[in-house]
Prior knowledge:
Elements: H1 10-40, H2 45-55, H3 60-71, H4 76-98, H5 107-111, H6 133-148, H7 153-172, H8 178-208, H9 212-236, H10 238-241
Helix pairs in contact: 1-7, 1-8, 2-7, 3-4, 3-9, 4-6, 4-8, 6-7, 6-8, 7-8
Amino acid sequence: MKEFPNRKILPFISVMLIYQFLLAVLVAVYGYEDSFKLLNGFHSDWLDAPMFLITHLGDALILTSLLGLFLIRKQPELIMLLIVIVILTGLFGQLLKNTLFDSWDRPLSVFGPSGDVHTVYNYLLYQNSFPSGHSITVAAAFTTLAMVIRPSKWVMILLALLTVLVSYTRIYVGAHFAADVLAGTILGVAGALFLTVWLYPAISRWIENFNPIKLMRLKSGLYILAVLGLAGGILMMSDYFRQL
C-alpha cells in the first residue's frame, strides 16, 4: 500500500497563511468592495495576456487535465484522488454560491459599467461571486500534490506561489473580490487536507489490487479523459482566446 499522505507541508502552508493573512488585512482595512478596487487597480497592458492565460489554470477541467497528462503514468492513484477532491470541493463552493451567497454579485454588477473595473479580453462575469471557484480548485489541487508527492521545500513553496498567483488573477481580471479569493483558498486548502488523509489510502489500496491489464486500461482511460478535458476546456474558452 502507498505510504500515508505526508502532513509535513509547513513550507506550503506557511506561504498560504501569509497570503491569506495579507488578503484578510486588506479586506478588514479597506472593506469588501474597496479592497478589490485597490488590487484590481494595479494592472498593465503587457500583463493582461499572461494574467488571462494563468487565470484559466484555476478551471477544474483544464487544471486536472494538465496534471493528469504529467502524472498518470507513474501515479494514477494521485490523479484519481485529484479528480475526486476537485469535484467535491468545487461542488461545495457551488453550493455556497447558489444558496447562502446567491445574492453576492461580482464586481462588474456591483460597480456597474462606469465603475472602472479592469477586465481583460471581454471576460465579463456578473453573478455568484462568493467564494471564488477557481481559487478553491487551484488551492485544493496543489495542496493535494504537496501532501502526496512529498516534494522538496522549494517545490512546496513553488506550488504555494502558483496557488497565490492563479487565485490573485481572479482579482486582476475583474472576476472576484479579494474576500472571494480569500474564502476560496481557505476552503480549497482545508478541503484538500481533510479529503487527502481520508481518501488517499483507500484509493491507493483499490488501484494496487488491479492486475497489469486492468491498470493499463485505467491509465489509458485517464489519458483519454485528460486529453478530452483539456480540449473541452480550451474550446469553452475559445471565444476569449481568439482575442489574445
